[in-house]
Every structure is written in C-alpha cells, then in structure tokens.
Amino acid sequence: MAEESCHRVAPVHTHPEQVPVRTALAALADPVRLLIVRELAGSPDWTRACGSFRVPVRKAALSHHFQVLRSAGLVEQRDEGAKRLNRLRREEFEARFPGLLDLVLREDD
C-alpha cells in the first residue's frame, strides 16, 4: 500500500462540465485509476486519504493517477492536517456523462 501521498501543493480541480469524453474515458481506462474510483465509490465522501488505497504503485505514480482523475473531473481533494482526503464527484460526473460511471463501476466486466 502506498504511503500518504499527493499532498502539499494545492490540487487543481477540473469541473466535469469542462471535460471532453475522451479525457474521461482515458482516465477510467487505466486499471489503477479504475481501482481508485471503485474504492472511492464504496466509501463516504472525504473519508479516504491518498495513502489508504491498495494500489500497486509508489507515491509519485499515485500522485500522477490522482492528478489525472482530478483533470477528468472524477475526483475532488482537500487537505486536512497532514492528509489529503478524496471524494468521488459522482453527481457532477453523472450530470456530464449519464450512465458512464455506473457502467465502469460494474464488477462483472
């Protein structure tokens, strides 16, 4: 599991309304990012710190994956003390891409 990561520089967030469909699809096509999104989908908002995800990558790579997810409008982050907490922007993303998130979150695929 990665140590606490992806914090100190304030994150830049892209609203899903500004995201092209190709950007959203590319973000969700990566297995590590899909794992992060799936774990966030099963967690209450703002309860998952960056280092709490069970992903097979180091801190620098994890930071990159979170940056891609923010740029695709999928994840929002905020700092709380020494931790950076995350939430899935489910409602906003669903408004922009109806049904896409539900489709990729299905476990049977």
TrEMBL record:
The keyword Transcription regulation applies. Transmembrane segments: none annotated. Residues 13-108 form the HTH arsR-type domain. The keyword Transcription applies. Keywords: DNA-binding, Transcription, Transcription regulation. This is Helix-turn-helix domain-containing protein. It comes from Streptomyces orinoci.
